[in-house]
C-alpha cells in the first residue's frame, strides 16, 4: 500500500533529474542529493541515454547506484524514493 500512496504523490511531481548521453553515472550525485532533500524524485531518461536499454532497466540500475527504491516507471520517466 505504501507504493500506491507514493505513486499518487509522484503524479504531480515535476521531473528534476534528466539522464542524457552521459548516462546514469553523470547524475548519481545530484540524484542522491535530491533524495536526501525530498521524499520522491522524478527522473526522465532522454533518448540519448536509452540506447538499446529500456527505461525499466536503466531506472533499476540508477536506483541501485544511489541506494533508492524504484517506485514506478511510466514511458521514459521513473520515480525513485
- Overall strand count: 4
Shape estimate: globular
- Average of pLDDT: 92
Radius of gyration equals 12 Å
Total count of helical runs of at least 4 residues: 4
Give a quick account of the main beta sheet: strands, pairing sense, barrel closure: 4 strands, mixed
Q: Nutshell version of this structure?
A:
The chain is of the alpha+beta class.
How would you describe the overall organization of this protein?
The protein has about 80 residues and is α+β, with helices and mostly antiparallel strands. Helices cover about 45% and strands about 25% of the residues. The protein has a four-stranded mixed β-sheet with strand order 1-2-4-3, sandwiched between helices. Strand 3 (about 70-75) and strand 4 form a beta hairpin. The radius of gyration is 12 Å and the shape is globular. The model has no long low-confidence stretch (mean pLDDT about 90).
Amino acid at each position: 500500500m505504501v507504493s500506491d500512496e507514493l505513486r499518487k504523490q509522484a503524479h504531480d511531481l515535476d521531473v528534476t533529474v534528466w539522464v542524457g548521453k552521459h548516462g546514469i553515472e553523470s547524475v548519481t550525485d545530484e540524484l542522491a542529493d535530491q533524495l536526501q532533500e525530498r521524499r520522491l524524485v522524478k527522473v526522465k531518461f532522454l533518448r540519448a541515454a536509452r540506447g538499446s536499454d529500456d527505461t525499466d532497466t536503466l531506472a533499476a540500475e540508477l536506483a541501485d547506484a544511489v541506494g533508492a527504491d524504484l517506485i514506478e516507471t511510466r514511458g521514459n520517466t521513473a520515480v525513485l524514493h
